[in-house]
Amino acid sequence: MVTTLRLFIKNELQNHAAATAFYFLLSAAPLILLLTYAAQYLAVLAENSTPAVILLAALYEQFNLDQLSNLGFIPKKTQVAASGVGLLTLVLSSRGLFNAVQSAFRVIFPDESKRPFVLNWMLPLVIIPVMFALVVVSVTIQASLTFLANVDILGESRTALLKALNNVIVLLLVWSLFYAALRRLPLHRPPPRQTLLVSALATLTLAGLFQGFGLFFQIEKYQAVYGALGGVVFILIGAYFACMAFYFWAQFLYALTKADVTALEKLFLGGSNKLESFVYARSNRLLAKYGRHYAEGETLIREGDTSREAFFIHRGSVAVYKQFPEGDKRLMDIDAGNLLGEMAYLLDEPRTASVRAKVDVTALVLPPEMLEELMRYSAPLSRRIIDSLAQRLMRMNQSA
Predict the structure, then answer these.
(1) Which residue ranges does the chain devote to CATH 2.60.120.10?
(2) In what order do the strands lie in the sheet with 310-315?
(3) Rounded to whole angstroms, how far apart are CA atoms 186 and 183?
(4) Nearest to residue 340, comparing CAs of 326, 353, 327?
(5) What class, spelled out in words, does domain 261-399 have in CATH?
(6) For residue range 95-152, what is the model confidence (pLDDT) as tens digits?
(7) Distance between CA atoms of 303 and 341, rounded to whole angstroms?
(8) Please, which residues have CB within 8 angstroms of residue 8's CB and are 6 or more apart in sequence?
């Protein structure tokens, strides 16, 4: 959470949330009009079809179309046909919404690579129909549950069960949308399990936000201040808080996937303040995952070996040996708190010297991909590795 809050503020995600909320409001207008067209079409079918009546009632209940009409978001029936908001407006505004989300994700999940140009243009055209399909499925399921309740199939507890099932369906729908966004939008996809967990947390946060939103924000007050625009301002504020919550959990997902990297960085460099030192410098979890014990005289690195692991000496000290015709020569000692073995990975060459434990040693053995991630994630650590490597080469040359 400490890293999440720090990155959330550093990346200015509140500004990205405001931009996303604005494009959401632009996209909501044509979407609501399309829902209105659907409601009008169902109203015509409802004259001779009972299922159409059920679907129409579910549509109004699911999206509060009556309230949106009273607020002025939905024009009257005679005005809808003459409205100039069409499919082109929906595509352009939806693309703006997608670009706003994608821009925020590029900040949250930094990556130098880019999506292909054609794919980047086609994604909004694919996402919008998928969202509509999910909405249709949700409305259809709700209409089916309403019908079952009306024909008295569910018994005495039908009302409570119906509400519970509707809530579960809505939560699962939002959960699936969050999971798809958090899993697919980052160029390097986060792990599925962590994404599922964070998506669930984001869904519950959003549900709690909407439950508590009406307690602190009343639309009547906004209408009294802003007049006809009060409803627009009210929805814009709600969308802003929802985007803030979503981006916060997206940043948390990134911090969660970088937990080991952050902890290793703070362990190597030391926390910049007491709080960071306390949170990150505890090495028990890192030792359990990467720790390895070496007895006195045991070899950590053998000269000529093609392994690529790096070693961080957590406890104890080691000695570096180089082979010469007359035998092994001891070049230097390395104490706890130093990283070694990175030269073989950086130069992609066999080991240039052997390393043996002078006493009992506990070391963190880092695979090559973790070392690469550390250097990419932390510029100060990269500078320290380069500086340490240069000094070590100088001392080895002097000893030789």
Answers:
(1) 261-399
(2) 291-294, 361-366, 310-315, 339-340
(3) 7
(4) 353
(5) mainly beta
(6) 777 788 888 988 898 876 676 767 666 776 676 667 666 666 666 666 666 555 555 5
(7) 11
(8) 247, 248, 251
